[in-house]
Design brief:
alpha/beta; 281 residues; 12 helices; 44% helix; binds adenosine-5'-triphosphate; disordered N terminus; binds magnesium ion
Length: 281
Amino acid sequence: MNEKTAPTRKPVRVITVTSGKGGVGKSNLTLGLALALAKMGKKVLIWDADLGLANIDVLLGLKTTATIHDLLNGTKTLPEIIADGPAGIRIMPAASGILELGELSEGQKQRLLSEFDDWNDDLDFLLIDTAAGIGGNVIYFNLAAQERIVVLTNEPTSITDAYALIKVLSTRYQQNSFHILPNQVTGPKEAKNVFGLLSSVADKHLNQVSLSLLGYVPKDESVTSAVRAQKPFLITAPDCEASLQVVNVARCLAANAPDQLAGGGLVFFLNRLASFGGTVD
Ligand SMILES: Nc1ncnc2c1ncn2[C@@H]1O[C@H](COP(=O)(O)OP(=O)(O)OP(=O)(O)O)[C@@H](O)[C@H]1O
Ligand SMILES: [Mg+2]
């Protein structure tokens, strides 16, 4: 470690927004949280790690062409692939081909690390919108990040799949700490109920897993209208109940920073991401 520079590095918070089941609201909540944090004066980059149907560029109506593949190929620099979003947030667009984190060459790993190095001091939060499920990259991003937000809804399949993701990360990879964020619920009571169902199974079957309820986001027609308009609901309807709760969640996150020494920071995250090899089943 470079003793001269390492202790003075700004502690970037690297957080995944993840889920067991697809379509629960990860991309919308990632975008909402990014905007809420930006409005609090934080510098936020979203890494869109899932080329789903409604990925971050689609939700913003952005047309992006360059992706992380261009950076890894050496044809583009990081500033050339990052897109500007509203309120000063920035977006690393989803890759059009599968990004095989386990198959990066040494040169590509070094390139990833050195390109991000210049950004460290210009960022407070890196939010990663992962794919759903327990595929290789989902596991890699969740292990490399310092914090994980598991989004789920009040459906048995969503709760079961959230549990399956937490189970894999904790039993196979010793990752034991998770923020839980119920989405599309009717209110705090239902959120607590969903959290209670998940924690009771986790407490029963998993050792030393720590789940914390981060807040909740209600089901809100403003979210669906914003998705149709390709504009973030935090901008089209800043006073709707979903926006107000996303702001609460962002405040809660900002007020509760983990100990950066325990696996934090952008460089630490990238080093860990670049260190994974082989496939994860
Ligand atoms: N709080 C909410 N209120 C109402 N509708 C919502 C809410 N959150 C999400 N939705 C609806 O769910 C849909 C899926 O949301 P989103 O694309 O954010 O999920 P996702 O978890 O990222 O999906 P995927 O797994 O495919 O990436 C949205 O298009 C929207 O219609
Ligand atoms: Mg998504």
